[in-house]
Design brief:
The structure is a single chain. It contains one helix and 22 strands. It is mostly beta strands and 371 residues long. Strands 1, 2, 3, 4, 5, 6, 7, 8, 9, 10, 11, 12, 13 and 20 form a 14-stranded antiparallel beta sheet that branches. A hairpin with a 3-residue loop joins strand 6 and strand 7. The mean pLDDT is 97.
């Protein structure tokens, strides 16, 4: 099917741009943005869109964590014939400038959650190492991804509140990915829930005034990774030095295992780079923590990313995360706001994390959900 994309000189296949190189239903393109208040440290926003050409679906979400409550909006539509529009009902993304500026919008809808935010990059993007994994001779993961730190400005409304965002106090990052994904099924109602191997998962953005650290790894044992990518990113437009690509990490994390989900409280990580240099980064977690299940990650009450919900469908909810039962259903996987320190430099960002059962450290949280 032809679209306006087919006018561009960017075809990779002898086919129209609405097709990809495989018929695997798990092939996904995703835009993902996380934005946080680093002055008051009381709010974090999650926003994303997924496109599934082999399922003929586009879906998206907007979430806000504020003072212990999380407000969620999820929507889905049939993809074709409007494959070039990043819009699901009131939720939309507009690319203003490649690798630099995005506009995120959630217009009037029944949830009462609205936003109109411009995200602007401050650092060069980190192009992650290609993520290719097989299981039993079958490709289960084949993803390209880049991450980028930035700032935001705009308007946010939820729960009867209106908040103005400014670039000095509202930092954030975005993640852009495409390829075949391993399905994640963590819905409490699912009889085919994902089981996890022994590992430590850490995906982080640590933004400082003049640089940012990125890392994502799955560590099975000391220095043994099934995936590792990272970089010290330079300010936007500066030359990237390949010597600052990540070579390995060493970490010591502190945990709280008293609740219904795994909760990181602080620690430190040493980053070793290809140029032989290393940096020690210490951190403490802050209260804001938006749980990705509010955006449908892992499935929520029977709805999974890419499910066909018809021409248009939306749902919304608000969670009181002080309720242990609500928190248990929200589960571990989250963007947890973090205060970082590297030498005398103070920064902010997030970590997504999880410890699989049988990993050689952190037994105190392995009885709790990994993701």
């Amino acid at each position: 099917m032809l679209s306006k994309w087919d006018e561009l000189l960017c075809h990779q296949l002898p086919d129209t741009m609405d097709h990809v190189h495989t018929d695997n239903p798990e092939w996904t393109e995703r835009i993902y943005v996380s934005i946080y208040n680093v002055r008051d440290r009381d709010t974090i926003i999650g926003f994303g869109v997924g496109q599934y050409p082999n399922k003929n679906v586009q879906d998206g979400f907007a979430t806000v964590w504020h003072l212990g409550r999380q407000y969620n909006f999820r929507a889905s539509r049939i993809l074709r014939p409007n494959i070039a529009d990043i819009r699901i009902g009131p939720l939309s993304v507009e690319l203003l400038e490649g690798l630099k500026r995005l506009r995120l919008k959630l217009d009037e809808n029944p949830s009462g959650l609205l936003l109109d935010i411009e995200w602007t990059a401050t650092m060069n993007p980190h192009e992650e190492e290609h993520d290719f994994r097989e299981s039993g001779g079958r490709v289960v993961q084949d993803i390209s991804r880049f991450d980028q730190a930035g700032r935001s400005r705009g308007i946010l409304q939820f729960g009867g509140k209106t908040i103005s965002l400014d670039e000095e106090n509202w930092w954030g990052h975005r993640d852009r990915s495409w390829g075949t994904r391993r399905p994640l099924r963590t819905d409490a109602t699912d009889g085919r829930r994902t089981t996890f191997a022994p590992f430590l998962f850490s995906w982080s953005v640590a933004q400082f005034r003049d640089y940012a650290f990125h890392w994502r790894f799955v560590e099975r044992g000391p220095g043994k990774y099934t995936y590792l990518s990272g970089e010290k990113a330079a300010p936007l437009g500066a030359n990237n030095d390949p010597g600052w690509r990540l070579d390995k990490t060493e970490q010591e994390f502190r945990w709280d295992g008293s609740g219904p989900v795994q909760t990181l409280t602080g620690g430190h990580i040493r980053l070793f780079f290809k140029n032989g240099q290393d940096r020690e980064v210490s951190f403490v977690t802050l209260a804001p923590r938006w749980h990705l299940k509010g955006g449908g990650y892992g499935g929520y009450r029977g709805w999974y990313h890419g499910d066909n919900k018809g021409a248009y469908y939306c749902e919304y909810d608000a969670w009181d995360l002080s309720n242990p039962k609500v928190l248990a259903e929200a589960s571990t996987l989250s963007d947890h706001l973090i205060e970082w320190r590297c030498g005398n430099d103070l920064g902010y960002g997030i970590m997504e994390y999880g410890v699989g059962p049988g990993y050689h450290k952190y037994n105190e949280v392995q009885h709790l959900p990994t993701f």
